[in-house]
Amino acid sequence: MPITGAGVLTDRIPLAIVTAREAVANNPWISERWRVVEALLADPGAEPRITRTLLESGPDGEKYLWSGFELRLHRSEADAYYYNVIGQNPSLYVYCEHDESGEPRPRSVTAEYIEAMTHSEMGNATYNVAMPPEVHRLVEQFALAHYEPEEPKMNRKRDRARRGAWDE
């Protein structure tokens, strides 16, 4: 489902990722560090090929824009998206591979925490970044359209009695 305008439900959201190399002062062990800085909503017509573009360069480091990513939303994960968007810090999780210099090279993006933790537990680099407001709105629309809360379990006799569920 493409993004064509307001109110259109989508399961694919085009994204770009920003990484940064920053100088580290007063540290005897490292002189620089890499971070995944943010995710941005990309142009829906952008080519889906991953590309890297230098945004800024200076004595304090560099910033790079990685284009060509797509956040794919799955109905089976609607509950995870729902809890992500209603949480205090709605996030996107960026899975990266590091090259020989230590630079994180983004490979995929998810809004699902368990998938991100699976990558981390397998020893892969996973960074969380704040979910941009435009992406939040799209993920929220998808989650609300597909999320089905579970019925509470009736474990006690008094719960069954209140609901009239004695005829099981």
How much is the average pLDDT? 87
SSE string, helices as H and strands as E: EEEEHEEHEHH
Low-pLDDT residue intervals, each spanning 5 or more residues: 1-5
Oligomerization status of the protein chains: single chain
Separation of the first and last Cα atoms: 42 Å
Any idea how many domains?
A: 1
Shape: elongated
Strand content: 35-45%
In helices, the fraction of residues equals 10-25%
Largest sheet: 4 strands, antiparallel
Give, in spatial order, the strands making up the sheet with the most strands.
2-1-4-3
Overview of the molecule:
By secondary structure, the chain is α+β, with helices and mostly antiparallel strands. The chain has one domain. The protein is built from 4 helices and 7 strands. Helix 1 crosses helix 3 (133-146). The longest helix is centred in the last third of the chain and has 14 residues, at 133-146. The chain is elongated. The chain starts with 11 loop residues before the first strand and ends in a 5-residue tail after the last helix.
Question: What are the main properties of this structure?
Answer:
4 helices, 7 strands, 168 residues, disordered N terminus, alpha+beta, 4-stranded antiparallel beta sheet, single chain, 3-stranded antiparallel beta sheet
